């Protein structure tokens, strides 16, 4: 995982038509932790939501046959239930609830050692890749994470 470049998913563990589970290991060190918080580093809650959103996005990219990208449009019912420290191994799950009209709604869950640390309902907009460079980068990253 590279927090600074928003590469949150390290590996896809499971993928079905309507569900994906991803492994996400928080780095031991990152500039993010310098201010959040000195002496007691924690992963910011907004990045916990981003991990779930990226997992959901990978599911939608695959569902489209890698012809569309997914971008976060709405976060609802978010609950941050635990603290995540540097070095933590997380599993992020996204389950498709609805897909249509260019938007998809998914239930995201983030777990550490099986315990739920965050959850949210995520709405993502899907659209054709706006640039060939973006499509190439997404395809390369999909291969790197085992998708």
Textual characterization of the structure:
With 147 residues, this protein is of the alpha+beta class. It has one domain (3-135): Hotdog Thioesterase (Thiol Ester Dehydrase, Chain A). The chain contains 3 helices and 6 strands. The protein has a 6-stranded antiparallel beta sheet, with helices on one face. The radius of gyration is 15 Å and the shape is globular.
Topology diagram in text:
Layout: E1 11-15, E2 19-25, H1 32-35, H2 45-63, E3 68-80, E4 89-100, E5 103-112, E6 115-128, H3 132-144
Antiparallel strand pairs: 1-2, 2-4, 3-6, 4-5, 5-6
- Number of DSSP strand runs: 6
* Element string (H = helix, E = strand): EEHHEEEEH
**Cross-sheet strand order for the largest sheet:** 1-2-4-5-6-3
Largest sheet: 6 strands, antiparallel
Query: How many domains?
Result: 1
CATH topology: Thiol Ester Dehydrase, Chain A
The CATH class turns out to be: Alpha Beta
The proportion of residues in beta strands is 35-45%
Our measurement of the CA-to-CA distance between the termini, rounded to an integer number of angstroms, reads: 16 Å
CATH architecture term: Roll
Sum up the overall morphology in one term. globular
Determine the number of helices (DSSP H or I, runs of at least 4 residues). 3
Uncertain segments of ≥5 residues (pLDDT<50)?
Answer: none
Question: What would you call the quaternary organization?
Answer: single chain
CATH homologous group name: Hotdog Thioesterase
Q: Portion of residues in helices?
A: 10-25%
Q: What is the mean pLDDT?
A: 95
> Rounded to an integer, what's the Rg over CA atoms?
15 Å
């Amino acid at each position: 995982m590279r927090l600074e470049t928003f590469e949150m998913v390290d590996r896809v563990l499971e993928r079905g038509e309507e569900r994906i589970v991803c492994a996400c290991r928080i780095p031991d060190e990152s500039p993010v932790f310098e201010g959040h918080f000195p002496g007691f580093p924690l992963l910011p809650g907004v990045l916990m939501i981003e991990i779930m959103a990226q997992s959901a996005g990978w599911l939608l990219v695959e569902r489209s046959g890698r012809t569309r990208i997914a971008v976060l449009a709405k976060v609802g019912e978010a609950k941050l239930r635990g603290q995540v420290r540097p070095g933590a191994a997380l599993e992020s799950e996204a389950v498709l609830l609805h897909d249509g009209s260019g938007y998809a709604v998914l239930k995201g869950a983030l777990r550490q050692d099986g315990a739920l640390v965050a959850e949210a309902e995520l709405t993502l907009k899907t659209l054709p890749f706006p640039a060939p460079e973006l499509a190439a980068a997404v395809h390369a990253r999909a291969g790197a994470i085992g998708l």
